[in-house]
Specification:
The structure is a homodimer. Chain A is α+β, with helices and mostly antiparallel strands. Helix content of chain A is about 55%, strand content about 15%. The interface between A and B is medium-sized, with 35 and 35 residues. The structure holds a DNA duplex.
DNA sequence: AAATCATATAGACAACTGTCTATATGTCAT
DNA sequence: ATGACATATAGACAGTTGTCTATATGATTT
């Protein structure tokens, strides 16, 4: 097992805020631009920008610029890695398939 | 899906510190008393006590007093719940068996 | 009951976090 | 080029975090 505690501590820190947890949940359903995410919360645009930067910095979320819009989505590889890490951290009886797409 | 974001944000906060992540990893191997955990880190006893209280408060870690010792262990139910939550949050193709013991 | 040992609590403090307002940057339409 | 729009950055600030030292609590041993 790769025991990169520092890296995963940062990812869990990114998930340790209720707003960011909800954002990740929204992105798991589908790719969204910042303005769509903003509509779902009672925060200002700069605050959302702060949260998105934090999520993107952990690499759990992708940001792709499209004109003046930014489309955010879940990074599938990071997602699988995170699930693997947590399963192994907890020595869970858990099997996670690698996605093919 | 149970969408208890506030609860899980707190659990991820507990896992967002490298020391606590390592403690959880140690406890996944076996139950340990505070003094044994302390040996593995360069922190003072009150600092460890602070971290353990934080972990126990999330219910991810059990604390059982045995005389003046306290034995810490992973709470199996919380562990499974956490893995389920993360899998479902990320819409993972992941199957986690419920343990029978 | 006194001494020792394991753990918890209190208080202090520097560093970090999440939020805001104000402003900047970059893109698109006119 | 100008105006409008989407997003990012800067700076401020109150609240939280992780650490320490000092001390308290509670259990065990002598």
């Amino acid at each position: 097992m790769k025991c990169d505690y520092e890296k995963y501590a940062l990812i869990f820190k990114a998930l340790s805020d209720e707003t960011r947890l909800k954002i990740v949940s929204m992105l798991s359903d589908k790719e969204l631009c910042a303005c769509k995410i903003l509509e779902a919360f009672n925060i200002t645009q700069p605050t959302l920008s702060y949260h998105m930067k934090l999520l993107v910095d952990t690499n759990l979320v992708n940001a792709v610029k499209n004109g003046s819009w930014v489309n955010y989505s879940i990074n599938e590889e990071s997602k699988e890695e995170l699930l693997m890490f947590l399963s192994q951290l907890l020595k869970a009886k858990c099997t996670c398939e690698k996605r093919r797409d």
